[in-house]
From TrEMBL:
Signal peptide: 1-19
Oligomer status and interactors: Heterodimer of SoxA and SoxX.
Descriptive protein name: SoxAX cytochrome complex subunit A
Enzyme Commission code(s) on record: 2.8.5.2
Organism: Reyranella humidisoli
Subcellular location field: Cell envelope; Periplasm
Ranges for domain Cytochrome c: 154-246
Family: Belongs to the SoxA family.
One Pfam family here: SoxA-TsdA_cyt-c
Catalytic reaction(s) noted: L-cysteinyl-[SoxY protein] + thiosulfate + 2 Fe(III)-[cytochrome c] = S-sulfosulfanyl-L-cysteinyl-[SoxY protein] + 2 Fe(II)-[cytochrome c] + 2 H(+); S-sulfanyl-L-cysteinyl-[SoxY protein] + thiosulfate + 2 Fe(III)-[cytochrome c] = S-(2-sulfodisulfanyl)-L-cysteinyl-[SoxY protein] + 2 Fe(II)-[cytochrome c] + 2 H(+)
Keywords: Electron transport, Heme, Iron, Metal-binding, Periplasm, Signal, Transferase, Transport
């Protein structure tokens, strides 16, 4: 064996060992790991995962011409399996020419109004959730990779402030539940670490696919705080911070939760 091959072999062994050590030391858990075996199997099996029905619908909408320009998403972006791969791992992000971040559904609505000359889809609209699920599904299994920059970082800091701020009649913060008491039971269900790895998700409680905003509003109502309007910028700031906490965890969309 030449010295060059021996050196290459040592480098590969070191890299493999280092990566394994990194995985072993990462103690973060997605909500998937706190679910029972039956729900995990439901999420893993594309023929049993109810969220996949929305992904299929999103694929149909992707190819359907919309708006007065009669253009489809595919007309601009081509095959989503190529053009959308990894995109969802990098949102929220700041669109070109804008001064504030948008989440993935905000980006889809920008495409509709600017490129298709179509109406915005309202929050929790079935077609909007389906398109978001279809786009995010192209990144399933890829590590979350939030973008950075001075403007984004400022919004991310705002999100962390919201995460740690006590609010509502119960005077609770997100951190008290999802950091201090993660893994404990609340109403018989494990409290997750609040990593947004699977949105839009199908919740059995909802019997439908829903957005991260809907989940955050549920939390606000749960602590008896006033929920922000669905178009409030606080949701995007909070999502920015949550995606930072989940950096490196694999995207699961469409996830299934209790």
């Amino acid at each position: 064996m030449s010295a060059r091959l021996l050196c290459l072999g040592l480098v590969l062994v070191f890299a493999t060992s280092y990566a394994a050590a990194q995985v072993a030391t990462d103690k973060r858990r997605s909500g998937y790991q706190d679910m029972g075996e039956a729900l995990q199997k439901m999420q893993d099996d594309d023929t049993a995962n109810p969220g996949m029905l929305f992904v299929q619908l999103g694929g149909q909408l992707w190819a359907k011409p919309m708006g007065t320009d009669n253009k489809s998403c595919a007309d601009c972006h081509g095959a989503a399996a190529n053009s959308m791969k990894g995109v969802a791992t990098r949102y929220p992000a700041i669109p070109q020419g804008a001064d504030r971040p948008v989440d993935l559904e905000g980006r889809i609505n920008l495409c509709r109004t600017e490129n298709q000359k179509a109406e915005r889809l309202p929050p929790e609209n079935r077609d909007l959730l389906a398109l978001e699920a279809y786009v995010a599904h192209q990144s399933r299994g890829m590590p979350i990779a939030p973008p950075y920059g001075p403007v984004l970082d400022a919004f991310r800091a705002q999100g962390e402030g919201i995460y740690r701020r006590r609010q509502g009649q119960l005077n609770l913060s997100c951190a008290i539940c999802h950091d201090d008491n993660a893994g404990k039971k609340l109403a018989g269900i494990a409290i997750p670490e609040a990593h947004p790895t699977g949105y839009p998700i199908y919740r059995l409680e909802w019997q439908a696919l829903g957005s991260l905003k809907r989940r955050l509003r549920n939390c606000l109502v749960g602590i008896r705080a006033e929920a922000w309007p669905l178009d409030a910028p606080e949701y995007v700031a909070l999502e920015l911070y949550l995606m930072e906490r989940a950096k490196g965890l694999p995207l699961e969309t469409p996830a299934v939760r209790p």
